[in-house]
Every structure is written in C-alpha cells, then in structure tokens.
Design brief:
mainly beta, Immunoglobulin-like, 2 domains, 7-stranded mixed β-sheet, 4-stranded antiparallel β-sheet, 2 helices, about 5% helix, about 35% strand
Length: about 450
Amino acid sequence: MKNIIILLLTFSFVFANAQDAIKNVIVETYYISDANDATDTTGGKIEPGYNAYRIYIQLKPGCKLLSLYGDINHALKISSTSDFFNNTDYGKTFGKDFTKSNYNKNTVALDTWLTLGQTTKKASSTYFGVLKSQDTDGSFIGGENNDGGSEEISTGLLINNDPAAGIPITEADGMDTLLNVESNWISHGFIDFISGEDSTIFGSVKVGSEFISNDAFLFNTGVMGVNPDSNQVLVAQLTTKGEISFELNVQVFDPGTDQSFSSFYVAQGNDTINESEKTITKVSPLLKYPADCGCNDPNFLEYSKQFVCFSEGSCKTRVILGCMDPTACNYNPDANFNVQSLCCYPGLCYDRDLSLACPSEGELILHLDVYPNPAASQVTIQTTSYIDNKESKYVVYNYFGNVILEKDLGIVNGKITDVLGLSDFEPGIYLVRLYAGSASDSRMFIKN
C-alpha cells in the first residue's frame, strides 16, 4: 500500500505546474483621452476615447527581465483593431528615451512605446513604471504640469478622471524612481540603422495597427520592478481606440536556476532545452493576451496548461488513473489515463505485492467490490469467485492492521453479496480482504 501511495503522489507531481519566473501579466488602463486632449494638433491629433494601456510582466521575486524579443521560432506580436497613437512632437520608440520635461508637453504622455521598466533618460532622477495603485510619490503628468497643447488649454491636458481608467494620472502617474538603473541598452528591428527612423507602430512616420517580427529585440543588463516583492516590470504603453492583443517573448534572469543556461519564456510553442546553446525555453500562456480560456483543471482530460482562465462547460471528463493494458492482470476497463507503472504482470509488479494487485494466476478470477465509499451506516461487500473447492472468507482490518471482523463465506462459485453494518466502527480507513485458497483481493473504504 505504501508503494501505491508514493506512486500516486509522484504522478500528481507531474500534473503540478513548476514554479515559473513569470507569475502574471497585467494590462492596466492608464488613461482615456477626452475632448480637451483632442484639441491638440502639435503632437498629432488624438480623438476622444483612446485608451492608453500599460503592460506589466510580474516576475518571481529576485528575478530580472533582460529582454523582449521575437525570433525565427517565436514571433513578437502586438496589434489592435484600430491604429495606435504616436505623438509626432516628442514621441519615442522606447520609454527609456523620454526626459522628464518631455512629459509636460501636449499629449506626449500618451505616446505608444516599448521599454524594460525605464520611463525616462538618466538624469538627476530616473523613473520606472509602476502600477498607479502602487504609486505613492504623486504625479508630474497632466493638469497644472501640462502646457495645454496647441490650444494652450488653461487647465492643461490629460485631466480626464474617467473611472474606467482608475486613479487619475494627475494624482498618480505610474512612475517612480529606482536606484539600480539598468545599462547597456541594445535594440534591433525597430529603428532603421541608416535613417534613424522608426516606421513601426512605435514611431510616428507611419500609422499602423500591427507589429509582427521574427527578428527584433530590446535588451539591457536586467531590471526588477520598483516594488521588489510584487516585481512588476513595465514593458509597453499602447494607445489605441481598438481592442489590443499581443504575444510576448522574454528573457529572464532567474537566480534559482542553473546559471550556465539562459532562461527564455515564450507565448507559443513547446518547452525545449538546447544543450549546445545552453538555453531553456518554456511556454508561458500568460504572455498571450487575450488569454486562452478552457479547462484549466488538471483533474480532467480536457485540461491544457495553455488555458489561463476557466471556460464554463469545458471540463467534461474526469481523469481516472489506472492500468489500460489489457494484457495486465489488473487491467482497468474504466480508466481513461494510463499509468504504466500501475500495471502488474506475473513476475513484474513494480515492487508491490502481486497478490494485492491481481487475483491469483491461473483459472480464476477472484474479485471484490465494496460500496458506497465513503460510507456512513453500512457497506455492501460483493464477492466473485470461481475457484473450485476452496473455502472463502473476508477479513476487515483497521488503519493499524488490526482485525476488526472476519466472516466465513464457505465455498463460493459465482457472485454473492453481503451487507456489513458500520454502527460499531470508528470513523477512519478500513481494508477489506477476500481470501479463497491462496488467492486474495482487497479494497479500502472510508467510514465517515
């Protein structure tokens, strides 16, 4: 019995998710443009109702984000059902390239860009993205801090307090300082090397609604979130009137892994280990938005780790573990998930007692059923035996192996049923074992 329990615990562990470095991906509605913002023409006109979304990747504490990328096997995809807004005045491709004073101008703070945490250039203070709900140092964005745009609106722009965007950015701008500033920024696939122009959705040269690349990256020496416990790292600001979707791929430094390998997490594909290149690639369905929904309960056959959220009615067939090999002596016709190490054969029962797992070898089948299980007041003990001229009996043992009850059944040739009352039984686990000559079969039941 001990071996069976260990086996099942080991099998359950296979179903459990390993502790990934990617804990969550958060899409925050940062701001919603209004009629005041639409008056500005200096930075390129933005209509009312544009949503500025900020995308955060939450890492396991202690991990650092090294890169955002697309390669030949894993495309970097960012799209919307409508065009993205890019400010034509002081807009940037990367959040790290804004100065603090840039954000005071017209609608610059609504520009579309990528980053790895950082939202300003290095100066007296370097700022990093933080969820508005975790921003405790006030705001230098919008309202009295804004120049009012081309129409010089007296109240300044970016003052909309639409509750759909949460905390107004005039109260919390989602930026805070961080002492450890990352360095060695390298990018590829966004800005043209010769012209210096960005014609992707992150630049203002060409208006667009989609970015898909198998040859692009943004890299630095590694960044953690402003709050190390939650460790949420800003990777993008996307401003559009449409519905956004994305598939991100990232490189992560995880101090809890083998440092001779580089760790990558991708939105689509397969988990792989490349020994020659010393890379570990793992699929994280969190990196795809909107997330795939379906059966996310591993106790059902329809389960897939690709499902981040549950879809009503998706889990239909509960997993029944067992031996599905018809040649095994303990073949289970009701099982729908084969566990080969549960299968027993003459001479091979994986260090378990063959007499417990299977009937005796030879002509007969000796079979025992005990139901209901768990039970309250009584159980039905049903025995089937075709062993000629052999006395049969069943014995009930408690959890400690002590005999609680023994009943002779005589010579059984076929099926008999006996009802066992449980009024004198203490709540707990019991074992019923049926004997017929040298053969035996057993079942456990629980008394509530």
